[in-house]
Amino acid sequence: MNESTTEQITAVAAISDPQRRDLFDFVSRAGAAVSRDDAAQALGIPRSTAAFHLERLVSEGVLETEFKRLSGKTGPGSGRPSKLYRKAGREIHVSIPARRYELAGDMLAAAVEQSDRTGEPVRTVLTDISTETGRKIGASAGSLDAALESCGYEPRDDGAGGIVLTNCPFHKLATSHTDVICHANVALLQGVAEGASETRRSVEFVEPANGCCCVRVTAAD
Q1: CATH number of the domain within which 129 lies
Q2: What pLDDT score does 31 carry?
């Protein structure tokens, strides 16, 4: 599963400080890992200040570190390795309300690839892939409620044993390509319910309205 929204927001907050943002930009543009002295000189700030902000960026997973002897010497008398900083490979995406366009893109791309390989209609393949993806999400989350929450559907009790999904994680795509995305979304959440071994409630399609999802979870008869 993806990182929590809180973790993503915390990382963005770390870069929002002007000095840390300048340091991050400097490290990102550098052709190689940089030292504290490099960073301090580039920004015209004390080395201790640069070190403090660089370490904060490391603690939030925005930068990574490595140790290297800059003199090129080895063995006794060569001095201690310097701590160097480079941009982390982590990607940060923050969206409020939550959006999961990467998940949709993965399912669509996988469906096109499989359709090209097998000759099956892409819509049929997309349904199968969405269902299987949902099963994995449901099994990993352990419950339907936990999966819906972690995927950004913003579930709310409907007072009748079911759940209203007040947010669509694929909102823009669903607005532009309603039939394709909504059917994939229904298959995805049916898979989530199966993977989470949900038996008390069922996943059903409803017409999307007021920004809500096209799926409603209802109490089983």
Answers
A1: 3.30.1380
A2: 78
